[in-house]
């Protein structure tokens, strides 16, 4: 099921978006490389206006590809969870509308963007949004952190535990990326 909540963004009605429109996103995949045939099996994204999350998008995606056991151990998504979920040609056009005109924000953006570009290309679409990487930003702004994993950076910046969030699931990781990006923008 595709989740769209809080349709506050004006482009749904008028096609207009503010100049400061950002979408933080994350994908979960069947492996590490679209060149090796790996696919996106979950997309999570949140729209950011000013300092607030105003909308979200989330969907599992059935790509008819087996998820290796070791990959299942990372994100917890099983082959059975994808049975009956929408196919890429149902999810990606809706996601494209969600991100239209926005600057994309992701932690290790090159990974997520490469997978999304691949998925869009399979449907004859392109992804031309500009993007920002919170991983690169955190390395520059906080070189003293022991590592720059999403969880480490979010605990440092937000000063609270991420225990309520399910790490390595797309929507929660997108929310964390949004929150740390909002904090980094305050500097």
From TrEMBL:
One Pfam family it belongs to: RNase_T
Listed GO MF terms: 3'-5' exonuclease activity; DNA binding; DNA-directed DNA polymerase activity
GO CC annotation terms, alphabetical: cytosol
GO biological process, one term: DNA replication proofreading
Domain Exonuclease: 21-186
Keywords, sorted A to Z: Exonuclease, Hydrolase, Nuclease
InterPro entries: DnaQ, Ribonucl_H, RNaseH-like_sf, RNaseH_sf
Free-text function comment from the UniProt entry: DNA polymerase III is a complex, multichain enzyme responsible for most of the replicative synthesis in bacteria. The epsilon subunit contain the editing function and is a proofreading 3'-5' exonuclease.
Subunit structure: DNA polymerase III contains a core (composed of alpha, epsilon and theta chains) that associates with a tau subunit. This core dimerizes to form the POLIII' complex. PolIII' associates with the gamma complex (composed of gamma, delta, delta', psi and chi chains) and with the beta chain to form the complete DNA polymerase III complex.
Protein name: 3'-5' exonuclease
Source organism per UniProt: Candidatus Desulfaltia bathyphila
